[in-house]
Amino acid sequence: MSAETDFEYIRQLVRKRAEVALSEDKAYLVESRLAPLAREARVDSISELVRLLRRDPFNYLHQLVVEAMVTTETSFFRDEHPFEALKNFVLPELLKQRQVERTLNLWCAACSSGQEPYSIAILIREYFPQLASWTVNLIASDISASMLARARLGSYKPHEVNRGLPLTLLQKYFHHSGKDWQIKEDVRQMVDFRQLNLAESWSLMPSMDIMFLRNVLIYFEIETKQTILAKVRQVLCPDGYLFLGGGETTINLDAAFQPVQLGKAVCYQFRSG
Ligand SMILES: C[S@@+](CC[C@H](N)C(=O)[O-])C[C@H]1O[C@@H](n2cnc3c(N)ncnc32)[C@H](O)[C@@H]1O
């Protein structure tokens, strides 16, 4: 079986399960990302692994292959400006708007290993102590069970906490766990991690005041981006805020949203009128 055919199989599997489109130039990733799985499955090569996958109906091994092929790059306070906007504009505004309900719903969709939702949780703890008496539902989801397991554990390598996390916040909100740093229990408890494939139903999600959907649309084809944004329209409150990744936009995809400049960040809200 040729390597090209194996790549085509993997590509279709990832497309079918996660809607993630792997371009031809990602073929080189197959070897490095799937070699550990091949070893775990006790086969000698990627071709053998693909033969196993083809032989059986969708099972745990297929899921692990999908998880290994999607990009999970993330960091604490990634890109900085969205978190500044959250602190300086979005949360102060929503604190005023929701002072009767005293409830806030935030969703970090595609949270990878948890740095993004924990950055939000730390920001809330650090700058909005008054929210301690509110109901704050901070939901974080991802398609990847292995990333969610890491996120729930909240334990990070020194090089991970050195990316984006100020030392004062590291010392205040983490404790040593061997050579690693683990987020303190009370902050960990603030995040409700759930497995969710964005291409499937969002029916269990409450209305969201703030949605972080960052650095995931970029991996989808245009129609999938539009389908996902149509679902955001259903779940986001009329005065809610949507944050996308730096290379992502709603422009030319969904006219219901308009970009809003908040300091150095751009977020998206429903177009008025
Ligand atoms: C590059 S990471 C982004 C993490 C974080 N949002 C950030 O900006 O740092 C992309 C994440 O999207 C997840 N993902 C890919 N396809 C998905 C899908 N169909 N549904 C849910 N999550 C998906 C991956 O597992 C990965 O953790």
Note down, in words, how this protein is organized.
This protein is an alpha/beta fold and 273 residues long. It has 2 domains: 3-69, Chemotaxis receptor methyltransferase CheR, N-terminal domain (Chemotaxis Receptor Methyltransferase Cher, domain 1, Orthogonal Bundle), CATH 1.10.155; 81-270, Vaccinia Virus protein VP39 (Rossmann fold, 3-Layer(aba) Sandwich). Helix content is 43%, strand content 21%. The chain has helices at residues 3-18, 27-40, 46-55, 60-69, 81-97, 115-127, 145-153, 158-161, 167-173, 185-188, 222-235; strands at residues 103-109, 135-142, 155-156, 174-177, 180-183, 191-195, 208-213, 236-244, 257-262, 265-270. It has a 5-stranded parallel beta sheet with strand order 6-2-1-7-8. The protein has a 3-stranded antiparallel beta sheet with strand order 3-5-4. The longest helix is centred in the first third of the chain and has 17 residues, at 81-97. The mean pLDDT is 95. Bound molecules: S-adenosylmethionine. The site of S-adenosylmethionine has 24 residues, from loops.
